[in-house]
Amino acid sequence: MILDAQKGSPCEQKEVSMFETGNLGLIARLITEEREPAPAEWLQLIEQRCQQVKPFLRYFQLKTLAEQPVFLDSHETLTLGDHLALLAAVAHTLSLKLPPLLSRDNPVLREKGIYGQLNIPTKEPIKDLAFWGLDRNGQWVVVRLGLEFFPKDSSKPRDPFKVQPLKTEYICFITYLISSPVLLEDMVARTKTNPLNIWLALRDVVYQWYRFREGLFKEAMGLYNAVEFDERLLNSAFQVPEQKKTSE
Known about the structure:
By secondary structure, this protein is of the alpha+beta class. The chain has two domains: 22-59 and 194-232, no CATH class; 62-188, no CATH class. Helices cover 35% and strands 22% of the residues. It contains five helices and ten strands. It has a five-stranded antiparallel beta sheet. A hairpin with a 4-residue loop joins strand 8 (128-135) and strand 9 (140-151). Helix 2 (39-53) runs parallel beside helix 5 (195-235). The longest helix has 41 residues, at 195-235. The protein is flat. The two termini are 29 Å apart.
């Protein structure tokens, strides 16, 4: 509560800055004990950082799921959307019909957010791959991909994901794509993600947004100064009308 200066009584309104953090006590304890956060403490830190970032997510330059890069054995290839387009081209050549979940029209592909790295291992085939995300509404999500692998010498269609000089032992095809809302704890468990990577990803997107806005501010300041200089010169010749006040 805050004190009403006129009445000398506490007000019901509570003033809380959006930049306040509930992590100060935890961070102070970690500094005192000189240790890394425990798993549960990482979740607390990440959830609080999410609350800090959430009001600004609509301003961030976030990529859609289709724009996320795909890594094969840690080698970056094309985007997820491009891979699905290649898969559709192969299916069309073979007169096969792709399931709706693999269509470029799948609304999941248009979801903007912060996503973990999508790395498909091809030397040890797996049937299901999950990676984490935070959508533009501040909701944690798990994105799951169904995968099917065939030996390189298989009679199946040629690998639409093949990127030279990358050598793989298997050919990989995506069989489904699903995004589901989850709690942070479940997301970390399902994706087997190191919480530190989520913490750093949220940090990086804030830094990128800051640098972008800082660049815009410098450009705006340069334009403002140029216009202001012209105004002062003209004012020495005649009275230039002042700027009209607009209601915010």
